[in-house]
Amino acid sequence: MDGLDSAQLRTLAAVVAEGSFEAAARLLHVTPSAVSQRIKALEETVGQVLVRRTRPCVATGAGRPLLRLAGQLTLLEREALADARGPLSGGGRVRVAVVVNADSLATWFPAALARLPQRNGLSFDLRQDDQDHTAELLRDGSVTAAVTAQREAVQGCRVLRLGAMRYRALAAPEFAASHFVGGFTPSALAGAPLVVFDRKDRVQHRFIRAVAGRPLDPPVHYVPSVPAFSEAIRLGLGWSLVPEQIAEADLAAGRCVDLAPGRHLDVPLYWQHWRLESDVLNALTAAVRAVAAETLR
């Protein structure tokens, strides 16, 4: 800690979170010149460029460890302040940034937040990213915790296995009759339109490779919204893998059919969080593990 100024660290975090020096100045209630001076002073202390002056501003490799430190200090400081003030004062505000994959966010994860003991001033900044990429936000210090497919602990973090999210191959009955009349075969998979969440989403292609024994390149519709993604499948735009928690209702109602009965894809999920002794983080971890144990495979 010797040589690092807490105000400068908070300013670094604000610049990266807000994306610009001007927006950080508004958040911190100082002038853009003051923000620039703090960042310059911190860079001189470290002897490295810490912020890439792009739009939005991003932390450099040297800036990421300091960004993570800034977030850790902020969490512990706010938590200590809330405890010191006591319940009668209303405590202080504690905001925890968490990144979660879209399917967990649409199914089981909100129940974990709802299970936390009520605490005045506690709020969450939820980010969404593909489960194969969520750990990147832990590395750069943008978030405190992540639901991720990465089982190797990010430096400075703890990792816990949550279970596996099961996916099933679904399509509208008419689509299945038109494109898979001969079954779920490699030739049918190569030509049938596929619905994919975004360009980071490789779950479907992983499943296709497992079924066909080789990579295939079917036509793809990108639909980066969980409700619209499911609706696109129901309306016959294409087929896709759907989380079992969402698939069951559509199968029961006859809106979709299972294209590969008996086959599925299980995606292991892990909970990674900063290695801190924090009451808020411990309570969140316990709630996430409890709900995951009830809902994941």
Automatic annotation (TrEMBL):
Entry-linked PANTHER family: HTH-TYPE TRANSCRIPTIONAL REGULATOR ARGP, TRANSCRIPTIONAL REGULATOR
UniProt KW Transcription regulation keyword: yes
Domain HTH lysR-type positions: 4-60
GO molecular function annotation: DNA binding; DNA-binding transcription factor activity
Record's protein name: ArgP/LysG family DNA-binding transcriptional regulator
Entry keyword set: Activator, DNA-binding, Transcription, Transcription regulation
InterPro entries: ArgP (IPR017685), LTTR (IPR050176), LysR_HTH_N (IPR000847), LysR_subst-bd (IPR005119), WH-like_DNA-bd_sf (IPR036388), WH_DNA-bd_sf (IPR036390)
Lineage: Bacteria, Bacillati, Actinomycetota, Actinomycetes, Micromonosporales
Coiled coil regions, renumbered to chain: none
PROSITE patterns for this protein: HTH_LYSR
